[in-house]
């Protein structure tokens, strides 16, 4: 397996729990240093996802699996719920009903989504990777993918570089580009009780304001399409793009200055490609691609993992070995500060 982000770590764990010999290689010094550790940390319900889409089905399946995993692995989670305000929320309430997600509409302009939650995305990724090791997977960090010539099946969870891994097998069926999402972190003047959601626009959830598990408040993300997969910088103009929208959503931020900023690079697929999951048409016995997993990867990771097991092992799936508990993962300092420091060092 290639890539020990949240998706790769979840897949490694799901396969290892079903008796598969798993070797997981990660180019970075530890799991969760790229897209998986630079997102919002929000665990979405899928209330606003496209009904019937693969992404939606995997988000909903992950939601059914997640609570037991979070509890067993000791991953911090804040079950705070979310609220969306604006003209047209009724359409999103109807969409939630089609997806089987509980929402509450209090009037024509407010919809509440009680199932939305916030976690520490770094702790989550590290917990999944460590659990995979406890179930027999071998993890190698600081080990960029080069090639595999022993006939092993490669599961490609390489995030921003999934297209490069696929091309090593002659598969040029998709391309990945980085969609930058920038965030501002605040010491809040008062506690924020819930995630504040804007009305989604085409292709983006928009700018959110949300609490973190360590008591801060974050506003973001932007959505800036680029080409440089190593550009984790926060643009100078990001503050002016984000702050007015954040203040409009939560006036308590008026006059506040951010204490930190960070950027994530979402592995977006070109030409509308999204959730490219399956055996490679070029090398079906050698390569399974798990690519173009955009900003919902943290949310959907457990559902993606089960789906990949079905692709690798067929159905019906063997029952997984009971998940082995461990002490909660230790993350040095707030995850968002670690994220900011790693990519500005």
CATH-assigned homologous superfamily: D-Amino Acid Oxidase, subunit A, domain 2
Q: Report the principal-axis shape.
A: globular
* CATH third-tier fold name: D-Amino Acid Oxidase, Chain A, domain 2
What is the CA-based Rg, rounded? 19 Å
| CATH top-level class | Alpha Beta
Describe this structure in words.
The structure is a single chain. This protein has helices at about 5-15, 55-75, 90-100, 120-135, 160-165, 240-250, 295-315, 335-340; strands spanning about 25, 40-45, 75-80, 80-85, 105, 110-115, 115-120, 140, 155, 175-185, 195, 210, 215-220, 225, 260-270, 275-280, 285-290. Strand 12 and strand 13 form a beta hairpin. The chain has about 350 residues and is an alpha+beta fold. The chain contains 8 helices and 17 strands. The radius of gyration is 19 Å and the shape is globular. Helix 1 (about 5-15) packs parallel to helix 4 (about 120-135), helix 1 (about 5-15) packs parallel to helix 7 and helix 2 crosses helix 7 (about 295-315). The longest helix is centred in the first third of the chain and has 20 residues, at about 55-75.
Keywords:
345 residues; D-Amino Acid Oxidase, Chain A, domain 2; 21% strand; alpha+beta
Provide the fold topology.
Blueprint: H1 6-16, E1 23-26, E2 42-43, H2 54-73, E3 77-78, E4 82-85, H3 89-99, E5 104-107, E6 110-113, E7 117-119, H4 121-134, E8 138-141, E9 154-156, H5 162-167, E10 176-186, E11 195-197, E12 208-211, E13 217-220, E14 224-225, H6 238-249, E15 260-269, E16 276-279, E17 287-291, H7 297-313, H8 335-342
Parallel strand pairs: 1-8, 4-11, 9-17
Antiparallel strand pairs: 2-7, 3-7, 4-6, 5-6, 10-13, 10-14, 10-15, 12-13, 16-17
């Amino acid at each position: 397996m290639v890539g020990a982000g949240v998706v790769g770590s979840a897949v490694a764990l799901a396969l290892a729990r079903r008796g598969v010999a798993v070797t997981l290689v990660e180019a970075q010094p530890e799991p969760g240093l790229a897209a998986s550790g630079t997102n919002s940390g929000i665990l979405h319900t899928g209330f606003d996802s496209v009904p019937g889409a693969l992404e939606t089905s995997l988000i909903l399946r992950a939601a059914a699996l997640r609570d037991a995993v979070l509890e067993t692995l000791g991953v911090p989670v804040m079950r705070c719920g979310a609220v969306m305000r604006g003209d047209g929320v009724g359409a999103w309430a109807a969409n939630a009903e089609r997806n089987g997600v509980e929402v509450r509409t209090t009037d024509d302009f407010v919809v509440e989504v009680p199932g939305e939650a916030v976690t520490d995305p770094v702790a989550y990724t590290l917990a999944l990777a460590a659990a995979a090791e406890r179930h027999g997977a071998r993890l190698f960090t600081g080990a960029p993918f080069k090639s595999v010539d022993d006939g092993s099946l490669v599961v490609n969870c390489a995030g921003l570089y999934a297209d490069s891994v696929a091309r090593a097998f002659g598969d040029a069926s998709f391309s990945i580009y980085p969609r930058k999402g920038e965030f501002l972190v605040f010491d809040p003047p008062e506690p924020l009780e819930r995630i504040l959601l804007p009305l989604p626009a085409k292709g983006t959830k928009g700018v959110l304001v949300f609490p973190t598990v360590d008591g801060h408040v974050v506003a973001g993300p932007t959505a800036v399409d680029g080409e440089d997969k190593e550009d984790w910088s926060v643009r100078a103009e990001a503050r002016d793009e984000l702050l007015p929208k954040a203040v409009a959503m939560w006036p308590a931020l008026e006059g506040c200055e951010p204490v930190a900023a960070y950027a994530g690079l979402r592995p977006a697929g070109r030409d509308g490609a999204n959730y490219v999951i399956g055996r490679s048409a070029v090398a079906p016995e050698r390569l399974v691609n798990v690519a173009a997993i955009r900003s919902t990867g943290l949310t959907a990771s457990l559902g993606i993992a089960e789906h990949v097991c079905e692709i690798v092992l067929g159905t019906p799936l063997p029952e997984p070995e009971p998940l082995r508990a461990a002490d909660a993962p230790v993350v040095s300092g707030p995850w968002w500060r670690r994220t900011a420091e790693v990519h500005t060092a």
